What we know:
The complex is a heterodimer of chains A (about 350) and B (about 250).
Chain A: H1 8-25, H2 27-30, H3 34-60, H4 67-85, H5 89-114, H6 119-139, H7 141-144, E1 150-151, E2 174-175, E3 178-179, H8 182-205, H9 208-218, H10 220-225, H11 230-256, E4 258-259, H12 261-265, H13 267-280, H14 285-312, H15 319-322, H16 328-342, H17 346-353
Antiparallel strand pairs in A: 1-4, 2-3
Chain B: E1 6-15, E2 18-28, E3 33-37, H1 44-52, E4 59-64, E5 67-68, H2 74-79, E6 82-84, H3 97-109, H4 123-135, H5 151-164, E7 169-173, H6 184-196, E8 201-205, H7 209-215, E9 218-223, E10 226-231, H8 233-238, H9 240-247
Parallel strand pairs in B: 3-8, 3-9, 6-7, 7-8
Antiparallel strand pairs in B: 1-2, 1-4, 4-5, 9-10
Amino acid sequence: MNAIPSTQGSVIVKAAVLVIAALLLFAPFLFQDVRSLEVAARICVFIVLVASYDLLIGYTGIVSFAHTMFFGFGAYGAAIALKQMGPGWDAVALGAVAGMAVSLVVAVAVGLLSLRVKAIFFAMITLATASVALVLASQLSQFTGGEDGITYRSPDIFKTATKLFVDEEGKVVRIFGVRLNGKLAAYYFVFFTSLAMFLFMLRLVGSPIGTVLKAIRENEARAEAIGYRVVAYRTFVFVIAALLASLAGTVYAIWLKYTGPDTTLSFAIMIDILLMVVIGGMGTMWGAVIGAVLMVMAQYYLRDLMGTAAEATANIPLLPEVLNPDRWLFWLGIIFILLVYFFPKGIAGTIAQKGARA
Amino acid sequence: MTQPSLVTQDLTIRFGGHVAVNAVSCEFRPGELTVIVGPNGAGKTTYFNLISGQLTATSGKVLKDGTDLTAMAPSARAHHGIGRAFQLTNLFPGLTVLENIRLAVQARSGAGWKLLRRVEALTELTEKAERYLEATKLTDKAHQPASALPHGDQRKLEVALLMAMEPDIYMFDEPTAGMSLDHAPDVLDLIAEIKKDRTKTVLLVEHKMDVVRALADRIIVLHNGELLADGPPEEVMSSQIVRDVYLGKSTEAA
């Protein structure tokens, strides 16, 4: 009686997520090229970013357009610190803390001032705040590098030239042909920090507070009537999501060694996050994983795939034109529409329902 | 006589020029079930909203055991023992029946801010919730989403939610509204059960006269936002003024 009946579908979703986790864990060994590792690291960071956004939109029903702003605070914090102080863990720590401090202040201010108003007004306020942040980042170019962004070095241990283990001849040790160098260390730094943040969120949504957040989404007035201070819970989750996004930004900044408006602050990323949440499934942490993986993979590989397809169909009229890699956004759009049509609750949400008890 | 648990003093709310509740002063005691009657638009639900905090009074006070609740948010009033059920079914539709009740138990226990405990690990909350499921005969539906329940069971869940809050003051707003005759007794039995516990104060808005007769210790009549009559059921029901209100005669003509 106590056990929550798990459906066949939810087992499939969890198995898929486990496979993804295993692939990400062994990514440097399975996919031994620079681009694949780039994709894997981006997936790790975006899983955290999307999952933290899902805490807002999927669990609590808060629509915010300022999530990339918090991501940007963390990234710029680390970037500016690393640029000004040189590569070192002190700069990373200072940057991370500064980014989180700014995120905390802004999130509390926006949250307390405006979470009482209707959802649509709150969404507009976050949009305005995020626009201001974007303009500031490009205007304060002596700190932020403006539109060009900032290039810097990350701590020495993450340099590709760093040898983590050397053999007798002083060459870097290889395992399964993979050099144990700084790049590998950097990837695992990204992987494990992202994993820790994801597990924290998983715990959060499974805790009593997670149920309260869902209750607020389902029926705000009744949640208040049975004794939950809705404004406090909403502000809390808004702040937590902002801090996680900020930390994810710091991690991504360390990995990329470059921070600019296009990598962290732009509204294009905000749209990506929204799409990932919708594709994966709102209100489920697993959905964030699936959405982030599919979307990042599509962004990186759809063009390659279409190029191959266009070549393969070179002799057939019209098809090569349609499959031209330049039209990848068109196909991404079609895929998105089909996904929403066939998976109305997102991939994880819809599959998890399969086999559900009536 | 016991001390009143709930007091409203000159409780008034104005919406622009319209006075929806006008200077209602009333005392409610533990062990007493008071039925609030009055024609549509009399201000019964508004009076309830002023007590449980969905609306804030323009003037006057709400006191619970001497504590002034007038300026508090609904959640704070809930922690002071005010439990309120709603006229229209007002549940957490996407959550299961068990989750619905556990939320109320959890609010009462103050565990809502525990971030890193798994819900399942807090077994005492679940066990308590299951006791309320049993009391309301909803146990076999524990894992269904509330939205999937038939209307009668949703009304029962509404009552279960209120019981799980373990309030001192129970406020029911037409608990049998829209229920078929064969289901209504279930909910009424639950209310009778609560009434048996002589430490609870029960307020009930109800139209059905047989229900009123069966349960009421006392009746108050609201009309146009004003307290028109207050007394034992026989006395109030036989009074001329109440007949006039219910028969639609204007009070001026009477």
